[in-house]
Structures are given as structure tokens and as C-alpha cells.
Design a protein that fits this description.
Blueprint (H helix, E strand, L loop, with lengths): L2 H10 L6 E5 L3 H4 L8 H5 L8 E4 L1 H7 L8 E4 L1 E2 L12 E2 L3 H6 L4 E6 L6 H16 L5 E5 L10 H13 L4 E5 L5 H6 L5 E4 L7 H13 L4 E3 L2 H4 L4 H13 L4 H12 L3
Parallel strand pairs: 1-2, 1-10, 2-3, 3-6, 6-7, 7-8, 8-9, 9-10
Antiparallel strand pairs: 4-5
Helix pairs in contact: 9-11, 9-12, 11-12
Length: 264
């Protein structure tokens, strides 16, 4: 691994080996997502608790203060929408020149293993890795499932993560699963971060699956909706940060959430 990639990864993954990525890229297929209508207002109070933003170039340019000291993971795949036929039919949307111009610390792209567009999205990943490696930019692969949430089980996730790593992803973002998540992580030779997926019913549910995933080998999280769609997003971000970087138990993290919610 050359100096450039090591340097960029060191900005994303903190000295304790863990990370808290905050994705605000949902609009690229969902449009004006609830609580992301004005991304700049949403992220401002959350920035102290996250380690990086995962964002599209359009929102980065228009809504993110260029003076922030948080590294950027640039979302570079898209071309589909919730109104379309298949979310898996993605292409690369952003050139390597644009990734460099925007000073991204990494590029992120979705792959849809098991879909009709498996080959296309995996080749998208391979093409992106080929281009980014020339410039020392790490690629994060997102093991997406589109609308087929029933695919979020260990056998599928392990398959997707391993393939993404084999094709050159430096980090893999995948869903947590209740059974055998440790096998998903163990089968992936690069760091795994946990995706949030649909919004959970309670803060406790979020803290429980994040804590469990960390105990089973994930290095961190890439959670959006379960943070900024919370009724108390700052308290949620602070509690999650405590789990990721403070080794807090679920009980302790929930206490932090409640105390922060009350303004203490």
C-alpha cells in the first residue's frame, strides 16, 4: 500500500482503528429525503461526532462548507431512482479528475450481487478501483440490495463483501445481520463498516446492532437515517460515537443519549 492510500485511510479510520462515517447521499436515488431537505443544516451539529461524510458531488459543492476538517467519501455511482424499474442498474457518475478536484479522501460505489445487474456493477467497481489506485485514492464498496431487503443475511453479505474485496475495494460497507455477522467480517480481508439501512424503531435498537457488529469485528459504521432522522440526532450521534470510539456498552451509550437529549 503506497503512502497516498495510507494517508487517506488514516484520515478516515482513526488511530483506534475505528470510524464513524455519516452518509448524506440518499438524495441521489430518493430525491428530497426527510431531514435532508437542507443538508447543510442537518449535518452542522453532527460533524463533531463523525469522522467523515459520504456525499455526492452536487451536495458537496452546494451544501458542505469547504472549510470543514472532515474528510469526504465521494459517492460516484448512480443513475437510478425509487421511481424507476430497478435500483441496481447503476453506472459510474463521476470522473477520476472530479474525485481529485474535490479533494476526496475516498470514493464510494454500490455493487448489487445477485441482481440482474451484478456483472455491470461489479465491473463498475473494478473500473473505479483501476482508476483510483493510480492516484492513491481508496475505494469503498457498498454491498447494496436495492429494494430486496430480505437479502440481508450472512450468506449473501459474506459473498458480496468478499467479491468486493477481491476486486480491490479497500473498505466494504455492508449490512449487519443478527446471525453469523462475525463470519461475514472474517471472510472479508479488508475492513468492514456497518450500514444502517431503513430507520429503526428505537434508539436502543440502533445501539444494540452497532455494538454487536463492533464486537463481531466491524471497524465502524456508515449510518445516516438512524442518526439524522432521529428525534434527537445530536444525542444519537454522540451515543454512537461513544460505542465506536469510547468502547461504551449499550447501557452506557443509552445513558449518554438520554443525558444529551435532556441537555446535560
Amino acid at each position: 500500500m503506497d503512502w497516498g492510500i495510507k494517508n487517506r485511510l488514516s484520515r478516515l479510520i482513526q488511530p483506534d482503528g475505528h470510524c464513524f462515517f455519516l452518509p448524506i447521499d440518499h438524495g441521489y436515488f430518493q430525491g428530497p429525503t426527510h431531514c435532508l431537505e437542507k443538508p447543510d443544516e442537518t449535518i452542522k451539529p453532527l460533524l463533531p461526532y463523525c469522522d467523515a461524510l459520504f456525499v455526492t458531488r452536487g451536495v458537496l459543492r452546494s451544501c458542505v462548507d469547504p472549510s470543514i476538517d472532515k474528510p469526504i467519501i465521494l459517492r460516484v455511482s448512480g443513475g437510478t431512482s425509487m421511481a424507476g424499474k430497478d435500483l441496481a442498474d447503476e453506472s459510474i457518475t463521476t470522473s477520476i479528475q472530479e474525485i481529485i478536484r474535490l479533494n476526496a479522501a475516498a470514493a464510494g460505489i454500490s455493487v448489487f450481487v445477485g441482481s440482474d445487474y451484478e456483472h455491470k456493477t461489479l465491473m463498475n467497481l473494478a473500473e473505479l478501483v483501476n482508476k483510483c489506485e493510480d492516484y492513491g485514492i481508496p475505494v469503498m464498496a457498498v454491498t447494496a440490495v436495492g429494494k430486496e431487503l430480505e437479502k440481508r443475511e450472512a450468506r449473501y453479505l459474506a459473498l458480496s463483501c468478499r467479491i468486493a474485496a477481491e476486486l480491490g475495494a479497500r473498505v466494504v460497507k455492508t449490512y449487519w445481520c443478527e446471525k453469523d455477522f462475525d463470519k461475514v467480517v472474517e471472510g472479508c480481508p479488508v475492513p468492514v463498516v456497518i450500514a444502517g439501512g431503513p430507520k429503526c424503531e428505537s434508539e436502543l435498537e440502533v445501539l444494540e446492532f452497532v455494538y454487536d457488529g463492533m464486537q463481531k469485528g466491524a471497524i465502524g459504521i456508515n449510518l445516516g437515517r438512524n442518526v439524522w432522522q432521529s428525534a434527537h440526532p445530536v444525542a444519537m450521534a454522540k451515543a454512537l460515537n461513544a460505542v465506536i470510539h469510547g468502547k461504551a456498552t449499550v447501557k452506557k451509550a443509552l445513558e449518554i443519549f438520554k443525558e444529551t437529549k435532556k441537555g446535560k
